[in-house]
């Protein structure tokens, strides 16, 4: 599994400087703190994070966008899937930790009511750092039943609320209030993308 370090942890002789992956965190820091980040809309920030993550994992799995498509808005664009080499449709979303209301960390995501074979949920800390482990890659077998139930109870264009909660050392996924499922083992596991 790859290791990621905060840019200020990188000094000569440190574990971070020995790792080839420190460069990616440096790039992520540059993305977030480029002076323009706070002026971006939430959708533009999510698009930047999604694009960055696709570049980050390209050594392990090649993801591509569907053929040249034009979108009315960034919000609509980030709902579109990326495609795996085997044609799986992958939805990528990111969320900063929710700083209020809970003693255990929680991240909230909004999934469009579309057909996806895999979800990638990228959890960021309060400083918008991509957390160690490089996201949760959730295969359809984990989310299909609660996702179908949620679709029945929501209006057609409503997004389905999904939460990822840290409970001790475990991470639990809940879809529209469904019974939480332990997805700890899916952190940084790219197998569903292959």
Regions with little confidence, pLDDT below 50 for 5+ residues: 1-24
Instruction: Give the overall form.
Output: globular
- Placed side by side, the strands forming the largest sheet appear as 1-2-3-5-6
Calculate the terminal CA-CA distance, rounded to whole Å.
16 Å
Instruction: Give the percentage of residues in beta strands.
Output: 15-25%
Tally the helices: what do you get?
Answer: 5
Biggest pleated-sheet summary:
5 strands, mixed
- Using only C-alpha atoms, the radius of gyration works out to 17 Å
Task: Write a structural description.
By secondary structure, this protein is of the alpha+beta class. The protein folds into two domains: 1-39, no CATH class; 42-193, no CATH class. Helix content is 25%, strand content 23%. It is built from five helices and nine strands, in the order αααβαβββββαβββ. 26% of the residues are buried. Mean pLDDT is 80; it is low at 1-24.
